[in-house]
Amino acid sequence: MVEPRPPLDYYLLLSQRGDRDPAPAVEGIVVEEFTRHRDLSTAGLDSAGWTPTGADWWSSASFSRGMRTDQELLARVVPSSRGEAENAYRQLGGGQLPEEPVLRTYFRDHQPFATAPPLRLGPAQPPTGFHERRVYRVLFAKDLRDDQVASLRTLWQPTDNGTPRSPGSVAAGRREQGGDQFTWEVRRLGRGLAWCLDLVVLLRTDTSAALDATLYGLTDVLRQHGLIPVTTERFS
User: Fold this and answer.
1) What is the phi/psi pair of residue 225, to 5°?
2) Which of 73, 69, 47 is nearest to 60 (CA)?
3) What share of the chain is helix, strand, coil (3-state, %, to 5)?
4) What is the pLDDT of residue 165?
């Protein structure tokens, strides 16, 4: 059975701040989707964008890279829900935002990611009762405000009891589903260079559906809190 694909990621592209009008307005929409290897690490990135001044949707791998590395462009990109993207598309004169299968046809400039064997982080053998231990790290661009950190702690509070946070971690949580255990932490890397989500997975089952959903769901929570995912790495 083929598992359903996760929803696309949506972003609003804001106008540059001007001296006469300091409040930026929405001037476009960007839609993205990461492609993944079987182990759920990132294989590549597809994207498409639209502005009312253009004739059609456009696809650019260099623009996607700029969204994550160019500070001026990064400041103009805001993660959004599909509903917010639909409203912006309508208000900008685009009409009804196409459904996701149609949006995927606009992906014409795929950006592949370099691949490497998983690094080993932590013990090689899983604890008794589990057949596999995995560690994932999702890297993010942009920054978290204090209120967004507080929101994450509140959101994960029901599952955070008894989950100690290691040095540098600002929020953490734990979940068990079907016997599989998921433990995660959010931390800043380096001297403010980036944020990351570290997810430790202990598997009792043979299915990856819960793992896929958990990894995507946690990534999207951080995306909705203002961060832009860059890549997902597997460490074990």
Assistant:
1) -90, 10
2) 47
3) 25, 35, 40
4) 65
pTM above 0.70, yes or no: yes
Q: What residue type is 35 in one-letter code?
A: T
Splitting the chain (236 residues) into consecutive groups of 10 residues, what average pLDDT does each group show?
78 79 84 94 95 88 92 94 97 95 96 75 74 92 93 77 68 90 91 86 83 94 96 90
Q: What's the one-letter identity of residue 44? A: G
SS3 224: helix
Cα torsion 100, 104, 110, 114 to 10°: value is 40
Within 62-131, strands assigned E span 77-80, 111-112
Tokens 């804001």 appear where?
14
Confidence at residue 1, expressed as pLDDT on a 0 to 100 scale: 46
pLDDT at 140 (0 to 100):
97
Contacts of 173 (CB under 8 A, 6+ apart): 156, 159, 160, 163, 183, 184
DSSP sequence for 113-175:
----PPPP-S-SSPPTT-SEEEEEEEEEES---HHHHHHHHHHTHHHHTT-PPPTTEEEEEEE
Structure tokens at 83: 């509903």
